[in-house]
Design a protein that fits this description.
The complex is a heterodimer. Chain A is α+β, with helices and mostly antiparallel strands. In chain A, 58% of the residues lie in helices and 12% in strands. In chain B, helix 2 crosses helix 7 and helix 6 packs across helix 9. The chains are: A alpha+beta, B mainly alpha. Chains A and B meet through helix 1, helix 3 and helix 4 of A and helix 2, helix 3, helix 6, helix 7 and helix 9 of B.
């Protein structure tokens, strides 16, 4: 075997597999003309391939695949009925749903709904202490209301009532 | 992917069994070739075909069309066949009907000694294939039997083109080494066996 054979060997496999570039084909072709060992290597690759392929092709030709399909069909039908969960997942995975882009407005509507609800729920309602009226007096000129609003705080409200003025007659 | 094929796949994704039947009709022989090439046993190869198409029907919804459909199917076949070979400890011997061999040339057929040699060679190649690691055997099957390109093989096997080339190289090298003691490799080629000398064993 020549020294150049080692550099050719990888290209020889590409050549054999029909994956060589035009340049490589030309290089290997020229080399093969004058190199019996590489010719022999190429022939042995062809031989191995043929001996591998022959029995496979023969087995394919002999086989009747119609019963294989029937078995497949039977197997599929047995497990055809999906569980509810599988049905739900398949519904979610339906490509048409994504293609129609119904998810964008639906998701937006859900987000808005959640935000509004959250706002309503979390909104602090002012909590007024339950006032306890301590004193309430009324007179002609004023009213006084004293009540305790918790934590020792006392609130006093004075309401002054002026004399009612009669509206001038027009 | 052609429009017809895309439509077929889309129908299959919706659970249409007729669409699956059409896919089966188009691809079952290719799937069988790969399966048989890997396991070399009829019943098991047919089991693999069945398993592949059932798996395909159940998982075709995951096929988004980013790769070619047949490489997606080949990948499924490769994985299923490798699972099968891993499951069993040893490949069973050839069944009787498998010993008939490939078509021989007239020259070989007229020579009983050559027929014997051819059968022995087939047996030796088969044994050598069985000794190969799964990935190298698969590479040889996809290339030699199914005729896939390096790119298609890389997609089907989930590896780089460099890895594909390496698996092919080492697979072939091993088989050549195992057969070297048996026969002159240059005379291996079917139909060109007129001058194939059997190497005498034990120096006789």
């Amino acid at each position: 075997m020549k020294d150049s054979c080692s550099s050719i060997s990888k290209r020889l496999e590409k050549y054999f597999d029909n994956e060589a570039t035009d340049e490589e084909k030309s290089l290997v072709g020229k080399h093969l003309l004058s190199c019996p060992p590489c010719q022999s290597a190429l022939t042995s690759m062809e031989g191995i391939r043929d001996l591998m392929k022959g029995p496979v092709e023969e087995a394919v030709q002999k086989e009747d695949f119609s019963w294989v399909w029937q078995k497949i069909q039977r197997e599929i039908r047995i497990k055809e009925r999906p569980t509810r969960w599988e049905y739900f997942l398949s519904w979610l995975d339906r490509p048409s749903l994504f293609q129609k882009r119904v998810w964008m407005p639906a998701a937006a509507a859900i987000i808005i709904l959640v935000l509004i609800t959250a706002q309503l729920l979390l909104k602090k309602t002012p909590s007024y202490p339950d006032p306890t009226v301590v004193v309430y007096t009324e007179s002609q000129t004023h009213n006084v209301m004293v009540y305790e609003s918790g934590k020792g705080m006392v609130t006093v409200i004075w309401l002054f009532e002026g004399p009612e003025k009669e509206l001038p007659a027009s | 992917m052609s429009h017809e094929e895309a439509e077929l796949i889309s129908q299959c994704q919706k659970g249409d069994q007729e669409a699956l039947k059409e896919i089966f009709d188009q691809y079952h022989k290719r799937v069988y070739r790969i399966a048989y090439g890997m396991v070399r046993q009829r019943e098991e190869a047919l089991d693999i075909v069945q398993e592949v198409f059932i798996k395909l029907f159940r998982s075709i919804r995951n096929f988004k069309g980013k790769s070619k459909f047949y490489t997606y199917l080949y990948r499924m076949t490769v994985n299923t066949a490798i699972d099968h070979t891993r499951r069993r400890e040893k490949i069973p011997p050839l069944s009787l009907d498998e010993g008939k061999g490939i078509q021989l040339s007239e020259e070989v057929e007229s020579r009983p000694d050559r027929i014997l040699l051819h059968k022995e060679l087939k047996e030796k190649v088969k044994e050598a294939m069985e000794k190969l690691p799964n990935d190298q055997r698969m590479a040889l099957v996809l290339r030699g039997v199914e005729g896939l390109s390096y790119q298609e093989m890389a997609e089907a096997m989930g590896c780089s083109i460099g890895t594909v080339m390496s698996r092919l190289h080492y697979g072939r090298k091993r088989i050549q080494e195992w057969l070297k003691d048996y026969v002159e490799l240059s005379d291996l080629r079917a139909g060109h066996m007129g001058s194939a000398p059997i190497k005498e064993e034990n120096g006789e």
